[in-house]
């Protein structure tokens, strides 16, 4: 009976409407006709001209060429002064000698011809200006695009003490230049891909053509090319389309807002992806260590940098384990507590009405709420949240004997430590994982925690980011500079990580001129 | 889906759902064991169990120390054994009683000398809450009295008192390290003597007459004021039954001969070898492990014991300049070695003749000489060999310090 059901499903056939193919097949509408009035009409129709005010048409007669011309542009995306100064003004000026070459009249720097109407429209949509000249079956695309945006500012999430203080912004060209200015090399390659059937989002893939691993690069391109969605606004959305395991707790693609971090990954042979509208760069592949590290680890001196690494690792374990250890020990392993601490906890819990696990879950939830609210709260009220949270939840809850002071210590310590994990994605992963540990500890004690920890480790060793194992180069072992839990002295970091499958493994010392 | 069903089933079916929050328990710090009055142990199994509980409320800021409330946290009841007493006590104690933080088990001498002692204490091995590192104290009088009369000088919590005083006494070597674990190990090994901490309640001042600082047994230390409870010396157990007592000095000597002990801070006084009416005070430390060399031969074995010691001169009331005079140093070294050797030989003779076994855990040095357990057991260290063994003790003394000031004041010049 079951097999019968599946057989039935084969009888359904998908019918495709002919209109889908019409657009591509009909090449007539694709080319410019050369008749200016006709082409103008087509474009005006396409942009619903009179109603749509974000579309401008300017007809003019070019005295030098003695021809009619039309200029199209989208004012909200276009640099109007440039259109005025470098296109319209030279076209209208009555020059001494006559010429038929538009290139000799217009003074804009980037400029090309386009015969295909559809491609021309794409260009128009990005803010470029189209110039049609009567009798010529093509249009001139003049690069005039500009869009409102902010200038380069300080990083918000990945702050450092000694690192450069600039962060990516929402414009891809600025972002690319922020990376490029750190690597002045002819190997710096930027490729453009366009995704999104309707919104035509540009994706810039940046890699070092001499270093980047072929496999990873092809994988990145293939995955971006396979995105089927009519609009992918920015990188944060793009990575959710192309990451390895979409429902996994742990992130496999790194987002960084620091151009210097992106550049250092670039130099190791990783592939960087930049998009308009997102003040981040995406790094692939990304291992666990990429999330664990911060830029300051290398900017600080060897010992100081490793000290911060140690602190971060400690913070990670404190965040993961403190609440669950508290629950496990007070519920199942009382004999592990020194008598004084035991009596202190027992004394403090004397008046508390809830079991320890409920008490702790309540406080953890409250802390997460404060944290979430703190992100969403409008900036002027921000400080109030801290005061309200600390005062009401901490002080008052203890005074009212709703929670014991020890639990407040545990939750505060956990919360504070979680802030030391700088990467937002890893931060979320750890914070969510700790609830798993908490529940396991409340049911099975330390035995349960060990179980969860082991299965977590098993899981982490199985996941991959663009074909690279998550814990590489620690396990499986790869040749690298061992920049994992701790880092080496800078002069001893001579190898690029081999898991990227880079073409040149050693960072060869080059004599300075 | 199936995964979640299994996960939930695993949690529901296997979790320890009978666990208790820690404030739902009472923690016994000290457990006292006595023979109930008017009960003949040979006819009926019964035992007086005393529990001293820690009071978590003492933690709360501003709470007074033990005071009168302290009495309420000590209870005594008669039960078949001390494990069932846990439940019996719940007829008037509100919470489940936990032994997980019991620091000590106090046993009255009367019970320790009976055959029933090892049977009662054996149940501690079965009860998983009892720690193996719980110390055993043998009190001269009743254990319940020992616990009740115990008024620590600074009103500290009872568990602190037991922890501190036992740790400190072991450091000074006046009492042995006497954990339940050692009791079982020694008794099951059936070759050595087990030394328990000897304690006593004594409020009288006179004690006995003045002796050297460590020659007392519990209850006879002359003092005034302070806690009436004192711990000094040790109770000797043979095959799970108490057979005698050692003074503080004898305990120290036995610890020096024992390789499993740790002495850290042992102050001893000796007669000054140069000016015999004065005494000098020294600190004795073990330099390395005691070397016990057992030679098997026909008849009783020959045992050579080498005890390397380090000493530090702490006070020299005779003002003899030991620090500056090498000759006098040599005299001092020899004298101290001789004195300690004398004490050791005296103790060894006592154990050979009176106890007929040794409390130094020397069977550990004997066991490797046999290839099978059976051979070793047939050879019979305790009964056939040790009491008749020819024991040679060699104490090697190194002087490692003369106190903070090397030179003594010159009394003659001062006196002018």
Compact summary:
By secondary structure, chain A is α+β, with helices and mostly antiparallel strands.
Layout of helices and strands, plus pairs?
The complex is a heterodimer of chains A (513) and B (416).
Chain A: H1 2-9, H2 18-25, H3 36-46, E1 56-62, E2 67-73, H4 80-92, E3 111-114, H5 117-125, E4 129-133, E5 139-142, H6 172-180, E6 188-195, E7 201-208, H7 214-225, H8 235-242, E8 254-256, H9 259-267, E9 271-275, E10 281-284, H10 288-292, H11 296-299, H12 302-331, H13 339-349, H14 356-376, H15 382-399, H16 405-418, H17 424-444, H18 446-462, E11 464-465, E12 468-469
Antiparallel strand pairs in A: 1-2, 2-4, 3-5, 4-5, 6-7, 7-9, 8-10, 9-10, 11-12
Helix pairs in contact in A: 6-9, 12-16, 12-17, 14-15, 14-16, 17-18
Chain B: H1 2-14, E1 25-34, E2 47-53, H2 69-72, E3 74-79, H3 84-89, E4 96-98, E5 104-108, H4 109-112, H5 116-126, E6 135-139, H6 143-149, H7 158-172, H8 180-189, E7 194-201, E8 229-238, E9 241-246, H9 248-257, E10 266-271, E11 279-286, E12 291-295, E13 302-315, H10 326-355, H11 363-366, H12 373-379, H13 381-385, E14 390-401, H14 411-415
Parallel strand pairs in B: 1-4, 1-5, 5-6, 6-7, 13-14
Antiparallel strand pairs in B: 1-2, 2-3, 7-8, 8-9, 10-11, 11-13, 12-13
Helix pairs in contact in B: 9-10
């Amino acid at each position: 009976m079951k097999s019968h059901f599946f057989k039935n499903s084969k009888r359904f056939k998908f019918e495709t409407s002919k209109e889908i193919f019409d657009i591509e097949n009909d090449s007539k509408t694709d080319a410019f006709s050369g008749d200016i009035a006709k082409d103008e009409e087509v474009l005006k129709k396409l942009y619903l001209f009179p109603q749509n005010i974000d579309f401008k048409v300017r007809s003019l007669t070019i005295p030098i060429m003695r021809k009619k011309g039309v200029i199209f542009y989208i004012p909200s995306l276009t640099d109007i002064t440039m259109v005025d100064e470098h296109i319209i003004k030279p076209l209208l000026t009555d020059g001494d000698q006559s010429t038929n070459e538009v290139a000799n009249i217009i003074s804009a720097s980037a400029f090309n011809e386009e015969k295909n109407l559809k491609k021309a429209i794409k260009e128009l949509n990005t803010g470029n200006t189209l110039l049609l000249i009567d009798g010529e079956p093509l249009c001139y695309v003049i690069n005039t695009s500009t869009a409102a945006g902010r200038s380069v500012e300080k990083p918000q999430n990945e702050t450092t003490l000694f690192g450069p203080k600039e962060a990516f912004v929402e414009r891809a060209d600025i972002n690319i230049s922020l990376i490029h200015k750190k690597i002045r090399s002819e190997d710096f390659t930027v490729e453009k891909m366009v995704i999104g059937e309707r919104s035509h989002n540009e994706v810039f893939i940046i890699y070092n053509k001499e270093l980047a691993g072929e496999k990873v690069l092809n994988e990145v391109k293939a995955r971006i090319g396979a995105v089927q969605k009519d609009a992918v606004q920015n990188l944060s959305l793009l990575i959710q389309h192309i990451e390895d395991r979409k429902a996994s707790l742990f992130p496999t693609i790194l987002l960084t807002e620091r151009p210097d971090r992106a550049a250092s990954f670039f130099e190791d042979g990783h592939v960087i992806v930049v998009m308009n509208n997102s003040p981040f760069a995406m790094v692939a592949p990304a291992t666990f260590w990429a999330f664990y590290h911060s830029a300051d680890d290398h900017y600080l001196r060897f010992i100081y940098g490793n000290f911060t690494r140690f602190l971060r690792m400690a913070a990670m374990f404190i965040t993961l384990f403190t609440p669950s250890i508290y629950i496990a020990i007070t519920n199942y392993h009382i004999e592990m507590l020194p008598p004084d601490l035991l009596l202190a906890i027992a004394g403090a819990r004397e008046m508390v009405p809830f079991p320890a696990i409920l008490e702790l879950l309540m406080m953890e939830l409250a802390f997460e709420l404060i944290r979430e609210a703190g992100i969403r709260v409008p900036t002027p009220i921000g400080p109030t949240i801290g005061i309200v949270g600390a005062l009401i939840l901490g002080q008052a809850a203890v005074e009212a004997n709703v929670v014991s002071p020890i639990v407040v210590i545990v939750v505060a310590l956990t919360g504070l430590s979680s802030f030391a994990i700088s990467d937002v994605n890893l931060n979320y992963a750890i914070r969510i994982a700790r609830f798993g540990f908490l529940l396991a500890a409340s049911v099975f004690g330390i035995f349960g925690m060990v179980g969860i920890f082991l299965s977590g480790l098993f899981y982490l060793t199985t996941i991959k980011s663009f074909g690279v194992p998550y814990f590489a180069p620690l396990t499986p072992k790869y040749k690298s500079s061992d920049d994992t839990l701790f880092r080496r002295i800078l002069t001893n970091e001579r190898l690029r990580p081999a898991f990227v499958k880079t073409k040149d493994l050693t960072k060869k010392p080059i004599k300075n001129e | 889906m199936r995964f979640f069903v299994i996960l939930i089933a695993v949690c529901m079916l296997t979790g320890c759902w009978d666990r208790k929050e820690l404030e739902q328990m009472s923690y016994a710090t000290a457990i006292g064991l006595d023979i109930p009055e008017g009960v003949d142990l040979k006819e009926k199994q019964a035992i007086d169990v005393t529990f001293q509980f820690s009071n978590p409320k003492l933690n709360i800021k501003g709470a007074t120390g033990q005071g009168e409330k302290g009495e309420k946290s000590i209870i005594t009841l008669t039960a078949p054994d001390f494990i069932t007493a846990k439940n019996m006590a719940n007829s008037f104690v509100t919470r489940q009683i936990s032994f997980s933080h019991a620091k000590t088990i106090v046993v009255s001498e009367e019970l320790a000398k009976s055959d029933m002692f090892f049977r009662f204490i054996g149940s501690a091995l079965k009860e998983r809450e009892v720690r193996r590192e719980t110390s055993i104290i043998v009190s001269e009088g009743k254990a319940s009295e020992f616990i009740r009369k115990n008024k620590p000088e600074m009103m500290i919590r009872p568990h602190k008192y037991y922890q501190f005083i036992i740790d400190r006494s072991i450091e000074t070597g006046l009492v042995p390290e006497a954990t339940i674990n050692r009791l079982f190990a020694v008794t099951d090994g059936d070759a050595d003597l087990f030394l328990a901490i000897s304690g006593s309640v004594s409020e009288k001042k006179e004690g006995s007459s003045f002796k050297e600082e460590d020659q007392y047994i519990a209850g006879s230390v002359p003092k005034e004021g302070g806690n009436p409870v004192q711990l000094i010396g040790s109770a000797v157990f043979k095959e799970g039954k108490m057979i005698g007592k050692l003074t503080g000095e004898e305990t120290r000597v036995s610890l020096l001969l024992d390789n499993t002990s740790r002495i850290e801070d042992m102050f001893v006084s000796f007669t000054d070898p140069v000016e015999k009416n004065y005494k000098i005070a020294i600190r004795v430390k073990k330099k390395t492990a005691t070397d016990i060399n057992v030679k098997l031969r026909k008849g009783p074995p020959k045992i050579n014991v080498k005890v390397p010691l380090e000493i530090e001169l702490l006070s020299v009331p005779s003002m003899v300049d030991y620090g500056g005079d090498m000759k006098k140093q040599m005299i001092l070294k020899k004298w101290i070695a001789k004195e300690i050797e004398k004490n050791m030989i005296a103790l060894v003779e006592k154990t050979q003749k009176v106890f007929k076994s040794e409390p130094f855990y020397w069977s550990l040095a004997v066991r490797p000489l046999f290839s099978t357990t059976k051979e070793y057991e047939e050879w019979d260290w305790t009964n056939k060999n040790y009491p008749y063994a020819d024991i040679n003790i060699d104490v090697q003394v190194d002087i490692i310090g003369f106190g903070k000031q090397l030179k003594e004041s010159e009394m003659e010049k001062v006196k002018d």
